[in-house]
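Re: that chain you flagged

S.,

Sorry for the slow reply, it's been a week of failed gels. I finally had a moment to sit down with the sequence you sent. For the record, here it is as I used it:
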Amino acid sequence: MTPFIEQQQLLFSVIQDSEVTMQRPAVCHLPNEDLEILNSEYGKNMIKLLHIRRDGKKHCIKEVEACVHLRLDSVNEYSQGDNSAVIPTDTMKNTVIALAKCNGIETIEQFALDICNHFISSYCHVVYVKAYIQEAPWRRLEKDGVPHVHSFIFVPEGIRFCEVEQCQNGCPLVSSGIKDLKLKKTTQSGFEGFFRDKYTTLPETTDRVLSAELFCKWSYGKCQDIDFDWIWGIVHECILEAFSGPPECGEYSPSYQKTVNNIQKLILARVPQIEETEVILNNVHYFFVDLKKLGLTNEKEVRRCIKH
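Prediction finished late last night. Pasting the C-alpha cells below so you have them in one place:
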C-alpha cells in the first residue's frame, strides 16, 4: 500500500459562521468565498522502474516504486477550473524516469532528493513536493562465495523505503525506513502483570512465541554527507539484535512495548545522525492447542496462528 492517493485531495472548511436549519436531507450551497481549500496536493502513484548500471560485465540494479506529490501556489484549478499552472501527473511520471536515466539511482534517498530538487528548482509555482520511494529487495546471486555478474534473487527480508519533503526556499526533510520485516522467536517472551477487569480472559504467560511484522521509520537532522546505505544496514542490525538478544541465550521480552522501546533506544544510541524513530510491531499470535481429545500430548510443538 502506497502512502499517497493519486486522485486530487480537496478539503474544505466553512469560514462564515451561519446556522442552517434542515427539516429533511438537503443540499446546502455555499458561496465560493465562504470556503477555504485546506489541502490541494495532487500527484502520481506507482511509478515503477528498473535501473541497470553496467560496469563491464558486472551489472547493478535498483527496482523501485515512486510516488510524487505537489502543491502549487494557487488553487485556481479547483476554484475556477483554470489548469494553466497544473503540472500533469504524466509529466511527473516522465520526469522520474528521465531523472533515473540522467542521474542514476545510487540510493533511493538520493533519488528522492533529486526528484524534490528538480520540481522545486524547475517550477517557481511549486511550493511543496513530497517523494516516496520503496525498493524491491533484490540480492546478487552467489555460487561458492563468488558473486554472479548479472543474476539476482528476490529476498523478502523487509522492504526498504524513504520519504523526502521539501518546501520552496526550504531544506529537504529526509526519512528512511523498513517495513514488512517478519520476525519470530519461539521462547524468551511473556506477558504478565497486566491490568484486569471483568472483561479480561487472557491468561498470563512467561513463555510464548513472539512473532510480529515490523515497521520502522527514522528521520535525520541534517542530511548532508549521510551514508544512507550504511545507516540502513546498521538500523537493520539493531532491529534484529534488540528483538532477539544474544545468539546463545536470547533476551527475555516482557511485552511488545518493551521490545519496541529496546529497538528504538539501540538505534538512537548507535546512529547519532538519526533524530527520531518510529517502530510498530503488528502482533501475530500463536496459541497453545489442546490435543487431548485426539489422544495426543502437546509439548508446545504445535500452536495455532491468529494474526491481528
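What I noticed first: Residues 4-9, 12-22 have pLDDT under 50 and may be disordered.

Talk soon,
D.
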